[in-house]
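Anyone? Bumping this.
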Amino acid sequence: MMVHLNGIKEIIPEGMTIKTLIEWAKEGDPHLIVEQNGTYIYPSSYDTQSVFENDVIEFINPNLGG
Amino acid sequence: MRRLDDQRYIRQTILPEIGPDGQEALACACVLIAGVGGLGSITCLYLAAAGIGHIKIADGDVVELSNLNRQIIHSEAFLGQPKTISAAIRIKALNSHVRVTPVQERITHFNIDGLLKDVNIIVDGSDNYETRQVLNRASLRHELPFVYGGVQGFNAMVSSFIPGQTACFECIVRGPGIPSDTSPGIIGPTAGIAASFQAMETIKLILGIGKTLKNRMLRISGLDMRLHSLKLVPNPECKACGRI
Ligand SMILES: [Zn+2]
């Protein structure tokens, strides 16, 4: 199925959760911020939060410079 | 208000959202600028120009040449000098009526409570996760708004964390990310944009006007000129704000 991941259309396997999507995308930042359809997803929900067709998902590395 | 100040602030006091009463509220406010680097350079100046009564600036660093592509409150004349002194002199030159308290110390868990005496709002000007954690915990402890700004490269993030009303910084940012041995790159306007938003948030929070970035994180991409608002929710597992 198709999702928008960090602004790019990606074809991903069906039945994914945020957790499996992070693994699929090989995101290595343990403190990643995840946004799904405009809303922040907290980490304890990653393995239960499903990913759906046409979802807009952003993996955000926090900006910590000043 | 003195006659001189009537003229100084006329372009903002004619705004119905501010007016003379709002100007008086700004004059009575005390703000901590937590770091006077790229972000703090700009927030200091805009808040001083707006007539914030008391600005405390805390930073333990000295001015270095590599700061000057973005930390525009400082100048070549102050290379090697404490940043807080450089900033204080510039602020007083801009608005001599503002009370400025420079504190040439790195912000830590040990000194933050003292720094927050009389402070109404904490404005983030730090450049690392650990200092922001100190500021966030102090914000929660003292029930003070924490106006976060963070920058890297062409990208910036801004949000207002209000104890009891919103997610806190650590609800959203859980750690420093992947460690790096080198300082990240940044172009000056990135810091200017984020800090301008922080100054706007600070003024609005003091005056209680407008729609602030409560439970919203503004993400700015300077490279492709995109602004995006991320809806935040408190993290029930947050170790800092105790919602478990
Ligand atoms: Zn929290």
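Late reply, but here is one note on the structure posted above: Chain B has a mean pLDDT of 95.
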